[in-house]
Specification:
Elements lengths: L16 E8 L2 E11 L2 E11 L7 E14 L7 E7 L9 E10 L2 E10 L7 E2 L32 E11 L3 E3 L2 E3 L2 E7 L26 E10 L2 E8 L3 E10 L38 H9 L5 H4 L1 E2 L3 H16 L2 E9 L2 E8 L5 H12 L9 E8 L2 E9 H8 L5 H6 L2 E3 L10 E3 L3 E14 L6 E16 L2 E13 L18 H7 L2 E15 L2 E11 L2 E10 L6 E13 L7 E16 L5 E9 L5 E10 L5 E9 L3 H4 L5 E9 L10 E6 L16 H5 L4 H6 L7
Parallel strand pairs: 18-19
Antiparallel strand pairs: 1-2, 1-15, 2-3, 3-4, 4-5, 5-6, 6-7, 7-9, 8-9, 9-12, 10-11, 12-13, 13-14, 14-15, 16-22, 17-18, 17-22, 19-20, 20-21, 23-24, 24-25, 25-26, 26-27, 27-28, 28-29, 29-30, 30-31, 31-32, 32-33, 33-34, 34-35
InterPro entries: YbjH
Organism: Roseococcus suduntuyensis
Protein name: Exopolysaccharide biosynthesis protein YbjH
Length: 709
C-alpha cells in the first residue's frame, strides 16, 4: 500500500490479500500482497522490464518486500513505518526506507527517506554515516537472488527524499449515480530512474535510464471494497494503468447461500411388540428383509448392508439414504439405548462442526425417539479423523430458536480419533466407488523469456474402496492449452527432479498423474498411518509410508514419512527414467499462540538426494483461507542450486465454501520465484497432517459457528 511508486505508512486491514497488475510502456508489474499481521505487510512482485543490457526486449525480475509499522498515528504524531524492498531478489530494486504519514481531514501527507534504489535521487549525504562511516559505502551488483544482503541495509553515500499528498475526493454526481472512492495523488519520487539502462545498480555509465521528471501524479478509484483501479503519469514520460482485486478472509462476500435444512421432529414411538410377524422367504437374509420392509435397499454396493441386528438394519435402511442425500457416505450404525453411533465418511463441508450439524439434521427423523446422545465417527479413506459425542436436544433447541451454536459446542465432547467396531452394527457394503471431474491449472513464474508459464487441463479421477481400509485411486488428465512446454531446458547440475517441468509438459497431452493403491488406518488413538504404492505423482512412482501422532487436545503433531521412488518418464504413463532415490522427513507441526499462526519444521532427505530442513510459517483464518511461505536449506551449495540460491515460495489457499459453495475443495496458488531441484519433496495424496488437522479441538473451537449451519 502506498502512493504511486513511493511507499507510505498506511496499512490494509489485517489479513487482506490483494493481487494486481500494473502496465506501462516497456514494463509491467504483477503483485501479490498480504497483510500478514496488523503491523506487517508482505509483497511478492514479478516485473517484466526493459532488458537494460540490450536496450530492447524484456527480461523479468522477482522481488519480495516487507513493511513494518513502528507506531500508529495519533492526534499529534504521524504513523511511522520502515520497509525493505527487494529483500531477497537480485538487487535491481533493492532499497530501504523510513516513512511517516499524517492525515489532515481529507488530505493524507507522506514524507520519507530512501536508501539503495530509493536513493538514486541522491538528495543529500546518508545521515547514518555520522554514526558509522561504513554506512557511506553500499555494495553494488546484481546476483542470482535468493539471499538476504544484510550488509547493504541502509547503506550508501547518499539518500533520497520522497513525499506525496493523497486527497479523498468527495462523491461526484454522474448520470449513473454518485461516484465514490476516488482519490487524487501526487508524489515526488526518490527514484530518479525510469529504467536500468546505464548500468544500475552498478556504477552509472550514462544517463540513458534517467527519468525526465521525479514528479508523478495519478487517480485511484475504489468502487467497492474488492476492486481497485488506477491511472497515473510517471517519470514525465509514461502512462501507467493498474487494477487489483482484494480478498478479506474474515469477511466473506455477500453471495446467495443455501439455508441449512430444518431440524425435523423426532419420529413417534413405535410399539414393536404389536408389529405383525413376518415370514422370511427362503434364501433371503433376515437383515436384508428388515431393511427392505423399512424402506428398501438400493441396488449394487451403494445401497447394500452387511451384518447388523434387525433393529440396526431397519433404521440404517432409512438413515443411510438420508445421509447420502446430505452429501455423506454412510459406513455404519449402532443403536445402544439412548445413544446412536453413526459412522460416516466424506461430506461437502469443511469444518467438523458443520459436518456434525448436517449429519444430526439428516438423522433426526430416522433415529428412535429415545436416542438422546449422538456419537459421530468421521472417516477419511479408511482412517478415523475425528470422534465426538453431542446431544440431540441442543440441535432441537436451536431449531426452535431457543438455543445457539455456542451452547451446542458446550454440550459436545471431542474424543481421541480411533477406529470403532461393534458387534451388531449395520454396515454399508463394500466396495465403495467415488469419482469426479475437475479443472487443473499449473503455473510457473520466473522464466527469463516470460513472466508466467501455464498449462490448463481437465482431469477425471476415481477411487474404489476395497475394505480393510484400502483403496485404489487414479486419474487421467487431458491437456487443453498453455505455454508451459515452451520453457527453457534445465541447466541444473543436480538430478533434475523438478526443473525438467517443461519437458514433462511437452511430452504428452494425455497423462496419468497418479494411479496407486493405498491404506490409511489408526494403529492407536490419535495415531494415523498411511502406506501408498504406485504412480504417486506426475514425476515419481514408488512406495511411500507415513505415520503421524496428532493428539486431538494439543496444538502440535509429529510425523515421519519415508519413500523409495523412481522418476517417471516424461509422457507420465508407465515408464521410468532410471533415477531412484530414498527420501523422507521428520516433521513437527504446531499452532502458534498469536494471530492464528502455525509453523511446520521438517528435516530429512529430499528428492535430489540432498539433506537439509524446511521451515514453513502460515496463517489460517477461521474462514479456512490460508496464506504462508516456506524456505528450504540443504547441503547443496548456493552456486550449485542455481538462480534463487535455495528453494522458497509462498502460497494462498482459498476454500470454495468462502464463496458460498457447499464443497471441501479449494483453490491453491503456489508461487516459487524459480523452480530448481534442490530441496524438493515428494507430493503424495492424503498426507496425514492435511487429512487430520480439522479433527482437533482447536479446529472445532475455531469453527463452532458451523453447528448452526
Amino acid at each position: 500500500m502506498g502512493l504511486l511508486e513511493m511507499p507510505n505508512a498506511r496499512f490494509r486491514p489485517d489479513g487482506t490479500i490483494e493481487t494486481g497488475i500494473a502496465i506501462r510502456r516497456q514494463r509491467s508489474f504483477w503483485t501479490v500482497n498480504f497483510q500478514a499481521l496488523p503491523y506487517l505487510e508482505t509483497t511478492f512482485r514479478l516485473t517484466e522490464r526493459l532488458n537494460a543490457t540490450a536496450g530492447r526486449g524484456t527480461s523479468n525480475d522477482r522481488a519480495f518486500d516487507l513493511k513494518l509499522r513502528l507506531w500508529e498515528e495519533d492526534e499529534w504524531m504521524p504513523a511511522l513505518a520502515i520497509g525493505l524492498q527487494d529483500l531477497i531478489g537480485t538487487g535491481i530494486y533493492q532499497g530501504e526506507y523510513i516513512v511517516a504519514s499524517k492525515r489532515f481531514w481529507g488530505l493524507d501527507a507522506t514524507v520519507g527517506l530512501g536508501w539503495g534504489r530509493l536513493a538514486t535521487g541522491a538528495d543529500f549525504e546518508n545521515p547514518l554515516g555520522r554514526v558509522d562511516r561504513r554506512f557511506l559505502t553500499r555494495p553494488r551488483g546484481v546476483g542470482a537472488g535468493g539471499t538476504v544482503s544484510t550488509n547493504s541495509f541502509f547503506r550508501g553515500g547518499r539518500v533520497g527524499v520522497f513525499a506525496g499528498l493523497e486527497y479523498s475526493i468527495p462523491p461526484i454526481t454522474t448520470p449513473w449515480g454518485e461516484m465514490e472512492g476516488l482519490r487524487a495523488k501526487i508524489e515526488y519520487s526518490a527514484d530518479s530512474l525510469r529504467d536500468e539502462r546505464g548500468g544500475f545498480p552498478g556504477p552509472r555509465r550514462n544517463a540513458r535510464g534517467d527519468a525526465a521528471s521525479r514528479i508523478n501524479a495519478g487517480l485511484q478509484w475504489q468502487p467497492n471494497r474488492h476492486l481497485d483501479l488506477g491511472v497515473s503519469f510517471l517519470h514525465g514520460s509514461d502512462l501507467l494503468v493498474r487494477a487489483s482485486l482484494r480478498l478479506h478472509p474474515e469477511d466473506a462476500p455477500d453471495l446467495p447461500r443455501r439455508p441449512p435444512p430444518p431440524m425435523l421432529a423426532r419420529p413417534e414411538p413405535v410399539a414393536e411388540s404389536i408389529a405383525p410377524p413376518v415370514a422370511v422367504p427362503p434364501g433371503i437374509p433376515a437383515v436384508r428383509l428388515m431393511a427392505a420392509l423399512a424402506g428398501g435397499v438400493g441396488g449394487g454396493a451403494r445401497g447394500g448392508l452387511t451384518g447388523g441386528s434387525p433393529r440396526n438394519a431397519a433404521v440404517a435402511a432409512r438413515l443411510f439414504p438420508a445421509l447420502r442425500a446430505a452429501g455423506f457416505t454412510p459406513l455404519a450404525l449402532d443403536l445402544d439405548g439412548a445413544e446412536a453411533r453413526i459412522h460416516v465418511a466424506g461430506g461437502p463441508f469443511r469444518t467438523l462442526a458443520q459436518s456434525t450439524a448436517r449429519v444430526v439434521r439428516a438423522a433426526q427423523p430416522h433415529l428412535p425417539p429415545e436416542v438422546e446422545r449422538v456419537r459421530l465417527v468421521f472417516e477419511h479413506e479408511g482412517a478415523v479423523t475425528a470422534r465426538l459425542v453431542t446431544l440431540r436436544a441442543g440441535f432441537e433447541a436451536l431449531g426452535r430458536h431457543q438455543g445457539s451454536a455456542e451452547e451446542i459446542y458446550a454440550l459436545t465432547t471431542l474424543l481421541p480419533a480411533a477406529a470403532e467396531h461393534r458387534a451388531g452394527e449395520a454396515r454399508a457394503a463394500t466396495p465403495r466407488f467415488s469419482w469426479g471431474i475437475e479443472p487443473r491449472l499449473n503455473l510457473q513464474v520466473g522464466d527469463p523469456q516470460t513472466s508466467v508459464r501455464w498449462q490448463a487441463g481437465i482431469a477425471a479421477g476415481g477411487r474404489i474402496g476395497l475394505g480393510w481400509n484400502m483403496g485404489l485411486a487414479g486419474a487421467v488428465e487431458q491437456r487443453i492449452a498453455g505455454n508451459l512446454g515452451g520453457g527453457l531446458p534445465s541447466d541444473s547440475v543436480l538430478p533434475r527432479v523438478r526443473s525438467d517441468f517443461a519437458r514433462y509438459a511437452r511430452a504428452g497431452s494425455t497423462t496419468i498423474p497418479a494411479l496407486y493403491l493405498e491404506r490409511l488406518w489408526n494403529p492407536a488413538p490419535d495415531v494415523f498411518a498411511r502406506v501408498t504404492g504406485g504412480y504417486l505423482e506426475p514425476m515419481f512412482a514408488g512406495i511411500s509410508a507415513e505415520i503421524l501422532w496428532r493428539p486431538q487436545d494439543r496444538n502440535w503433531a509429529v510425523g515421519v514419512e519415508v519413500a523409495h521412488v523412481a522418476q517417471r518418464g516424461y509422457r507420465q504413463l508407465f515408464d521410468t527414467l532410471g533415477y531412484n532415490v530414498t527420501t523422507g522427513h521428520v516433521s513437527l507441526y504446531a499452532d502458534l499462540p498469536w494471530h492464528n499462526l502455525y509453523g511446520v519444521l521438517r528435516a530429512g532427505r529430499y528428492l535430489a538426494g540432498d539433506w537439509g530442513g524446511t521451515i514453513e510459517l502460515g496463517r489460517r483464518f477461521d474462514s479456512g483461507i490460508e496464506v504462508g511461505g516456506f524456505a528450504t536449506i540443504t547441503n547443496v551449495r548456493f552456486r550449485d542450486f542455481g538462480e534463487g540460491s535455495f528453494d522458497k515460495g509462498i502460497y494462498v489457499r482459498v476454500p470454495f465454501d468462502f464463496l458460498g459453495l457447499e464443497t471441501r475443495s479449494r483453490a491453491n496458488l503456489n508461487i516459487r520465484p524459480v523452480q530448481r531441484d534442490g530441496g524438493q519433496r515428494l507430493s503424495v495424496d492424503n498426507g496425514l497432517w492435511g487429512v487430520t488437522r480439522d479433527g482437533r479441538a482447536a479446529a472445532l473451537r475455531a469453527g463452532y459457528v458451523g453447528f448452526g449451519r
